[in-house]
Amino acid sequence: MFxxxxxxEYFMKKALLQATKSASEGEVPVGAVIVLDGKIIARGRNKRxxxxxxxxxxxxxxxxxxxxxxxxxxxxxxDMYVTLEPCPMCVGAIINSRIKNLYIGxxxxxxxxxxSVINLFEYPFNHKPKVEFGILEQQCSNILSxxxxxxxxxx
Length: 155
Known about the structure:
This protein is α/β, with parallel strands linked by helices. It contains 5 helices and 5 strands, in the order αββααβαββα. It is globular, with a radius of gyration of 15 Å.
């Protein structure tokens, strides 16, 4: 029998692996994966410092890769797992790519756009994914806390 909780945790762990890679590169540790039919088709992680580009968020990178893989911009059968609540830019990309389900690890009280600061899905845009919060929330939160604690200790 299919266990959705185990599946959600499995895919969020894969997003956490991307976040860990970001942290090891000196980036804010956020990771994302896009899943279609139970298989990961795209991965993304923050790379703003490396690319010197404000658009290099985990969600944007994953959406870009998924669109290229599927040869189209509509990801309406895809699910996204992301370790941190998306910002307004990333929520816009999620809306525009028609992601079906959005699974979020930790909330972002400073710039989250799925309920923390604002909930852009409450507005009458042409698409709204189903959203589930708190998938491996503690692990997703800890990787961020540990990263910033270590960064503060350097100064």
